[in-house]
Amino acid sequence: MDIEAVDMIVPNDSNIIVGYSHFIKTVEDLNEIVHTSMPKCRYAIAFSEASGDRLIRYEGNDDELVNAAIENIKRISAGHTFVILLRDAYPINILNAVKSCQEVGGIFAATANSLKIIIYKGENGNGVLGVIDGMSPVGVESDDDKKKRRDLLRKIGYKQ
């Protein structure tokens, strides 16, 4: 049994969503979700087929993000996983739509932090066991920290 932590490429000023699904239709449906939800965002999607041709399927409108998404899927190398990279947008803008996509079984991570995917390397392929998203906490928020958090959410428009 071989378990490995694989670093994901999260280009500057971008966010990553990693999940799993079950059908070749995934890449087109996720592309439609991203494009119609946020027409001006830069993005890329890569999806790893688990059977048939077993190709990496991809869509996107930003070459840097497309190349990074494909490289991330190569690093994970687990069937039916997908990576979405976003620039000029955030996962919160599409996460519910992605989770509601018929083919999507679940989400492993949605972040702008450094990200490691924990994989099990099997005889026929890899499987995702979990993620390491960012770093461990170093304390508990104070009342002042709570105020700053609440003020920030209102400043950036996510709370009224």
Automatic annotation (TrEMBL):
InterPro entries: Adenosine_kinase, Ta1353-like_sf
Highest taxon listed in the record's lineage: Archaea
Gene3D superfamilies (alphabetical): Ta1353-like (2.10.70.30)
Protein name: Adenosine monophosphate-protein transferase
Species of the source: Thermoplasma volcanium (strain ATCC 51530 / DSM 4299 / JCM 9571 / NBRC 15438 / GSS1)
